Amino acid sequence: xxxxxxxxxxxxxxxxxxxxxxxxxxxxxxxxxxITRKLLHTSxxxxxxxxxxxxxxxxxxxxxxxxxxxxxxxxxYFGFYQSVNNVKRKTYxxxxxxxxxxxxxxFASYIGNWTVFYLAVLLLAISDPMAFFVGYFLKKKKSGxxxxxxxxxxxxxxxxxxxxxxxxxxxxxxxxxxxxxxTLLLVAFAVSSTTTFTEAVSTYGTDNITIPVVAIAVLVLxxx
Length: 224
Prior knowledge:
Elements: H1 3-27, H2 33-48, H3 51-54, H4 58-78, H5 82-85, H6 93-111, H7 115-140, E1 148-149, E2 154-155, H8 156-173, H9 181-201, H10 207-221
Antiparallel strand pairs: 1-2
Helix pairs in contact: 1-2, 1-4, 2-7, 4-6, 6-7, 6-10, 7-8, 7-10, 8-9, 9-10
């Protein structure tokens, strides 16, 4: 049997187990669906970081992406996986997510540079949820709601947390041996500032695809 098929089955099982854990957290522990949705978002993105190690052909990542796009579409239509779908706001983020992962994988494999994949996925896995959780819990404070901006209800401290985490991630992921410290700081700032702005203005879950696209575009601009 093709080893890629084995890995495909492994990731299918892993993602399904993760979704089921999200359902348990939602139903048994009564966690808000906004919380379980973001926890699944983070865990799913972190698992996707293993793709370059295990898949030698992008077709298997495409198959995974199509499978889970269909799962999310079906769950919305038939009313299951409430830990993902039972949110009050209108969002298509779960549909954009597998598309973004595959696009980043395809582009990185095409140019032979996995830095762009790791950076794009880490921003989705860490910076995006961090911005959400900071804004979410600030809004929950009884002492008053923080000021929000834009139609997406983003908060200043949420965007600040995105920027700081994106800056640190960029410093860690970017190829230090290919650039001086000044260039490293410049590129990290460019990535973190542009993706912070992108996250702040993106609505309806489109940040799941706009964040990685912008991050990759910045790296291409700097020939990295």
